[in-house]
Amino acid sequence: MLSDEEHRRLRRKAAVRTNLTAFAFLAPALAFLLLFLAWPVASLFIQSFHAGGVMSPAKFVGLENWRRTFLDPLVVKSIRNTLLYSLMAIPTVFAIAMALALSLNSIKVGQNIFRTIIYFPTLQPILIAALMFTFVLHQDFGILNIIMRAIVGEPVNFLGNASLALPTIAMVEVWKGVGFWTLLFLAGLQGLPRDLYHAAELDGAGPLRRFFQMTLPLLKPTFFFSFVFATIVNLQIFDSVFILTDGGPAHSTVTTTWYIYRSLFTFNEPGFGATLSFVLVVLVLLLTAIQTYMFRERR
Amino acid sequence: MPHFRRGASSPVESLKSTPTMLLVSYVLLCFAAIVSITPFLYILSTSLKDTNSLFSYPPDWIPEQLFWGNYAKLFEQTSFVRWTLNTLGVGIAITGLKLVMDSMAAFALAKLRFRGKALLTTFLLLLVAVPIAALVVPLFFVVRSMGLLNTYWALILPALANPLGILMLRSFMVSLPEDLDHSARLDGASEWKVLTQIVLPLIKPGLVVHAIFTFMLQYTSFLWPLVAVQSDHMQVLTVGISSLKSNFVVDWGLISAASLLATIPITVLFLALQRFFLSQNLSAALKH
Amino acid sequence: MATSAISFRAVRKSYGDFHAVEKLDLEVKTGEFLVLLGPSGCGKSTILKMLAGIEAPSAGEIKVDGRLVNYTLPRDRNVAMVFQNYALYPHMTVFENVAYPLKSRRNSRVSRSEVPRLVKQAAEIVEISDQLGKHPEALSGGQRQRVALARAIVRNPAVFLMDEPLSNLDAQLRNTMRQQLIALHRRMGKATIYVTHDQLEAMTMADRIVVLNAGTVQQEGTPEEVFRKPANQFVAGFVGHPRMNFLEARSLGGSAVKIGDHAMETTASTAPPEARLTVGLRPSDARFHHGGENVISGHVLRSEFTGPDIFLTLDIGSGLKIEVRQTNDQRSSSEEALSVAFQPDDVHVFDKRGNRM
After folding, report:
1. Which of A130, B269, C234, C333 has the fewest beta carbons closer than 10 A?
2. Which CATH architecture fits C245-350?
3. Cβ(C286)–Cβ(C330) under 8 Å?
């Protein structure tokens, strides 16, 4: 037998070899994750204490950026708009997607063709979707306004009205996102145990009761993913705002990401942009954590 | 509430829908289909009109005389073709590089043992929740300090940093029976061969899903390319097309033609690989 | 003394507080067919996995051909394994599956041109020569089993490991495969460790059986030793079908015991009088129409006809019951009262802790 000392040495050697092998496989992906994802998050924090940097060298300004962030009414408005938009868009897209998924699940003929058509908008970049909606919403020749003219007699200025602009953007995002969620929910529905439904049907449970007492609770894992993912994506809303309103009218559609972009490219204040970005990261992580906690609790 | 596992033996016969439910379903679906498809048809129609007839009311859906001027202008006076090639090239580069790197990382997470594995997996899940849009400012400086601003590398490299692809491939690999890779190791395969000769051939559908997901993400991205690249001839499609709108006088015909053409590549991809475009693969990736 | 093909010295495996295998000492000689027998979770598969390099031992030394392999990669251990689910590579043909161990090695001793010959040779031995072009999914369970065997033998390893290889086959196929596996083993002449929970497989195939329970070796010996002289109550109950009867008894001093009202002579070592004991009697050891010594009498509670045998449950008084086997030719008229005799050799005595006396 080898001595304990010798065994320890060999064991360590073997452990190093195993760990090195795994590390070799992880290294390329990790390098990029660290350089282009983890480091930028960390440097947000550092940058939030600096000013300049685009044209001139960065200099330390202490809490100046943070002071401005908390005093700037547009920051508050941008966060408020972002949250408001998410509160409009996410429940709406989920409700519609669920209705469509249930419909798709209950039909046999034509399921494939409907699925393909409903998924179609989801394929397009949101930017293209937004551009297309400039045609749909245009006061003079927009198809929606042609319909409006036929119904109420006059066109509606969807994007030029401060109280309509944000809901309109939400509508565009819902139009583009509904196919994705429909197929996700449909897959969830089709994965549910059939036996249970037959049993419930025999017990005389009506479709409504079946939906609320069985379908919804059973789809919980799907909903967990959906809420988390939708929150992360929607709080970053930028493309459609950039194309449709560029923050207007009267700042009614200024979102956090839009303000971050402008602070870098229009206002030339990357330190301030970094501070706002940091706030957004914290906001998203916080909401994700709360959702995870809520879904875990009752599982 | 009791747990119900999938795959419990069940009669194939599905629940019968009542006639009312069927009717409601079809009405809803038809409405959704019309709403989904109308904007596409409308810009198709717009793109084939000259600007004057655009404003006629009521509009004619099918222009009496097809006007091809918008398309001609798009190809002759803008870099549309170049933008398309840029998007495809950058997208393919990212997809290829990510397939290799993510397979390797997912393999380590799914099939190898090492210290800190649980911690690393949690770290990746945490990174999923980071809003990428919030990183444009620091990313701009990172890429600039590497001297890569306004190069294709600026578009490619940051896009490689996305943990979702790793987690997605990991979930595919975890579902392979363990004995297969154990057997291969006993048969003399190195870990690299276990990955390339055993694991990867067995998760081909997962690789296709990953590739589509990665390519789509690149194809639809806008904010970062807008920040990273300034030269017109290096732009990707989304940024290029959006630049058409920022002209002083908006050329609606041109934009409609560009928007419509931009939908074609992804549509072709979708029709060819439809069964892989399933969003539940994404949700499976985040399950432990 | 020649070194053993496989040797375990003081090997332990624990996962946190759970001890999967406790201090295992085991030697397997070249040409020996050793069966690890035990219920699921007894540690037998863990032993196999440690030998294959899938799991690392927590302490102790494992050697193959005298070489320490604790820290050796699976591919450098010269060990081949047949998995319970065969672990055939689904994307490769049978030929490619069998050829894989030859091709995947970096410094293969086998030259490329020899591969087809070796594959064909292995395929012939396990009789799958006509299946080489197919994919595993096109094969039956028995054929898949043979492919897994061919893949194991093709590279001529020092040691074969088999993890419940027959458990997924139907009963009839299992019988044939048992015999063929033994024939194959004799032909190869290598050390084989075979893991199973099926005592019939263990009895029919093993040169030596190691009975395991809860991570510890209960008994090690030839099938006959394990059957005739079970080391403890666990082994006695696990090996042999139908299961041994266990009856509470008292010592009468010397080697005599009393079961209820029945005094029995045994060959056990002496125990102090009145000591509480457990006596084990195999249903198949019961002798009928003997009278005289070592007789237990009772009346028939239930009888089950199984074809060649009849199983009788007897009430032998004092609230005790035993099951005995009667062959058809021993069959007496359907008597109510019955006496059965057991040879002193066949009366197994266990102390309070369940160990054989």
Report:
1. C333
2. Beta Barrel (2.40)
3. no
ipTM of this complex: 0.86
Mean pLDDT along residues C46-54: 94
Give the chains touching A; criterion: ≥3 Cβ pairs < 8 Å: B, C
Domain identity same for A290 and A187: yes
Distances (CA, A) of C119 to A295, C114, C188, C267: 55, 9, 16, 55
Domain count along chain A:
2
Same domain, B33 and B160: no
Task: Say if A45 falls within a structural domain.
Answer: no
| A10 and A112 housed in the same domain | no
Cα B38 to the center of its chain, rounded Å: 23
Dig out the tokens for A85 from the structure: 């938009």
Arithmetic mean of pLDDT over chain C: 89
A153 and A8 in one domain? no
Tell me, yes or no, whether B240 and B113 share the same domain. Answer: yes
What are the structural domain ranges in chain C? 6-238, 245-350
Checking C103-112 for CB contacts under 8 A at 24+ apart, the result is: C104/B184, C104/B187, C104/B188, C104/B189, C104/B193, C104/B197, C105/B188, C105/C75, C105/C155, C106/B188, C106/B190, C108/B188, C110/C155
pLDDT of residue B11: 36
Chain C segment 257-286 residues within 8 A of B by beta carbon are none
SS (H, E, C) chain C: CCCCCEEEEEEEEEECCEEEEEEEEEEECCCCEEEEECCCCCCHHHHHHHHHCCCCCCEEEEEECCEECCCCCHHHCCEEEECCCCCCCCCCCHHHHHHHHHHCCCCCCCCHHHHHHHHHHHHHHCCCHHHCCCCHHHCCHHHHHHHHHHHHHCCCCCEEEEECCCCCCCHHHHHHHHHHHHHHHHHHCCEEEEEECCHHHHHHHCCEEEEEECCEEEEEECHHHHHHCCCEHHHHHHCCCCCCEEEEEEECCCCEEEECCEEEECCCCCCCCCCEEEEEECHHHCEECCCCCCEEEEEEEEEEECCCEEEEEEECCCCCEEEEEEEHHHCCCCCCEEEEECCHHHCEEECCCCEEC
Q: Which residues of A touch C9 (CB under 8 A)?
A: 1
Residue A168 structural domain:
67-297
Q: By the 8 A CB rule, do B102 and B166 touch?
A: yes
Compute CA C93 distance to the chain's CA centroid, rounded to the nearest angstrom: 33
Using an 8 Å CB-CB cutoff, list chain B residues near C105: 188
Q: Are residues B140 and B207 in the same domain?
A: yes
The arithmetic mean of pLDDT across residues C69-79, rounded, is 92
In a domain, B11, yes or no: no
Cβ-based contacts of A13 with chain C (< 8 Å): 71
Q: Does C71 contact A13 at a Cβ distance shorter than 8 Å?
A: yes
Quickly list H helices, B48-197: 51-54, 69-77, 80-111, 117-128, 136-145, 152-156, 163-174, 178-186, 191-193
Question: Looking at the domain assignment, is residue A43 inside a domain?
Answer: no
Domain for residue B159, yes or no?
yes
Whether C9 sits inside 8 A of A2 (CB atoms) is no
Low-confidence residues of chain B: pLDDT under 70: 1-17, 55-60, 247-249, 278-288
Structure tokens at C152: 């194991």
Contact list in A for residue B115 (CB cut-off 8 A) is 15, 19
Would you say residue A60 lies in a domain?
Answer: no
Angle at C348 (CA atoms; ends C343, C350), nearest 5 degrees: 155
**Average pLDDT per consecutive 10 residues, chain A (299 residues; last block may be shorter):** 87 94 96 94 88 74 85 91 95 95 89 90 90 84 82 84 92 94 88 78 76 84 88 92 88 92 85 91 91 72
Give the residue-averaged pLDDT of C163-180.
Answer: 90
CATH of domain C6-238: 3.40.50.300
Provide the CATH number for the domain around residue B100: 1.10.3720.10
